[in-house]
Amino acid sequence: MLRKFASYYKPHKKLFILDMVCAFFMALIDLVFPMVTRELTNDIIPNGKMRELYIITGTLILLFILRALFNYIVDYWGHVVGARMEANMRKDLFSHLQTLPFSYFDKVRTGHIMSRIVNDLREISELAHHGPEDLFLSVIMLIGSFILMFTINVPLTLIVFIFVPLMLFFALKKRKKMNEAFREVKRKIANVNAQVEDSISGIRVSKSFTNEEYEMYKFELGNREFKDSREYAFKSMAEFFTGMNFLINMLNLVVVSVGGIFIYNGTMNIPDLLAFLLFINFFMQPIRRLTQFTQQFQSGMTGFERFLQILEVKPDIIDSNDAMELDNVKGDIKFEDVTFSYDEEETVLSGMNLDITNGKTLALVGPSGGGKSTLCNLIPRFYEVDKGSITIDGIDIKDIKVKSLREHIGFVQQDVFLFTGTIEENILYGRSDATHEEVIKAAKSANIHDFIISLPNGYKTYIGEKGVRLSGGQKQRISIARVFLKNPPILILDEATSALDNETEIKIQKALEELSKGRTTIVIAHRLSTIKNADKIVVLTDKGIEEVGTHEDLIDNKGLYSKLYKSQFKGYIPDEVA
Ligand code: ADP
């Protein structure tokens, strides 16, 4: 895993090395300062060597300017490396997600994926930038200081040496507590966010049931937990910093007292003590960096592991080597002995045979859960059949490039999804290289053009998050315009079950009739007019295909369809009745 992690440094190798080199010189300059101070106070100042004093002061000024430069590079370019690595990882993750099959998204919650893309990658980026630098700097600083201190005074160095592990132990323990506390804060704020999102999305429901107080109660519970977790986190943070400062003060005290005794005994002089004090006051920094590193390493690596877990999910629908492009599609579709299940528990389609002739309309009717949507989802290979085959113009869809296959199929879904952007951009989603005139033509065919131009900004009207400013019927017609623009030879329609007002319904119906002209159309039908006009009706139940035929055939048949028709047709076939 570490090797995989390191591979993300590769494109930024030069910057990373620059970062490390600068960090190294920063540490070196820091180490030089106490030694120079010692020299100044020991020899140069008491002996009035003014020329040396000027030279040393001048050199120190130069060194500090250099240090500032290195510091800037480390802080700026170091973070840039982290940000670039994070961007690369995010790109890899996002492009991989685009290849994953529907079955993956059925199982994973959007929130989880979001947290991978946002939170985990942030932690990884923190580790990527600070990790090597923190480790490198603190090790150089600690080892360097000890070596130099040893050259000054061995017994006093040994005393300091005992103190440092003590401080490290304390720091690690408290830091762990502090990190856990802050992680809890993150969880709690995520709960509060989820609660707010849920409440706002469901505001119509809670208002209509006058459950505002209950919503407040749920929110307040989460809000209080969040506040409590923060208070606890601040407490552990205060403990960490207070403790560390106290220990540093104690170390100072020990060094001054023991050093004082040594001076009294004549085994040490004042400049040596001064150098010692300067060294130990550096310690806070490497110790803080080391503890920070352990924490960043832990959370960064956990994040990286989760990141890899997604990258390792295989896209299960991949083009075979000799997959072909579809060309001049007529649109004959054939299901041969098709068996499919989402999981082991339940077979949804079993040994199904079905023929759809090009240019004709097939209506799927039947009770909810009968497998109508499933059947439709198999044609563009949103899911893979377990057994049997589906062919288009005699070619097995498995032998067709997925992109080419899907380019020839238009899907009009019940739940229309519009992206944030303008109306035109949303229609262009059907075919991005279309001209403005083509967009207008598609909108006219979808019966939505007049509405669009009645808006102040026309086609440039911005649709807010999830297209909230449009009615269901308008959204549906925009989605139909998309498919007009795409102009596929095969069409799959999932008719809206929810009742629309008469005028809207007529507009949509007309648009759909226009759309299906000359295309092979499979429609999950709920409306009598659609069903009556279909060339073939398939009655699908959880036992498989019950009946096939035209409206007249099926009425004569006196089976399930005729029962349905007689019992409740007033324009709809409600799912539940059959
Ligand atoms: P219909 O469109 O006729 O209402 P569906 O094709 O939606 O029927 O559902 C057929 C069966 O498959 C149902 O038992 C349903 O619970 C199941 N099912 C549908 N979608 C999924 C899915 N994504 N994962 C698992 N099971 C599913």
UniProtKB/TrEMBL annotation:
Keyword vocabulary terms for this entry: ATP-binding, Membrane, Nucleotide-binding, Transmembrane, Transmembrane helix
Membrane topology according to the record: Multi-pass membrane protein
CDD domains: ABC_6TM_YwjA_like, ABCC_MsbA
Gene3D superfamilies: ABC transporter type 1, transmembrane domain, P-loop containing nucleotide triphosphate hydrolases
UniProt main location, coarse: membrane
Domain ABC transporter: 333-567
TM spans (from-to): 15-33, 53-74, 139-172, 240-264
UniProt domain ABC transmembrane type-1: residue ranges: 17-299
This protein's record includes keyword ATP-binding: yes
Matches recorded under SMART domains: AAA
Any GO MF annotation of the entry: ATP binding
PROSITE patterns xrefs: ABC_TM1F, ABC_TRANSPORTER_1, ABC_TRANSPORTER_2
Pfam families given in the database record: ABC_membrane, ABC_tran
Superkingdom of this protein's organism: Bacteria
GO annotation, cellular component aspect: plasma membrane
Family matches, as InterPro entries: AAA+_ATPase, ABC1_TM_dom, ABC1_TM_sf, ABC_transporter-like_ATP-bd, ABC_transporter-like_CS, P-loop_NTPase, Type_1_exporter
Name assigned to this protein: ABC transporter ATP-binding protein
Gene source species: Senegalia massiliensis
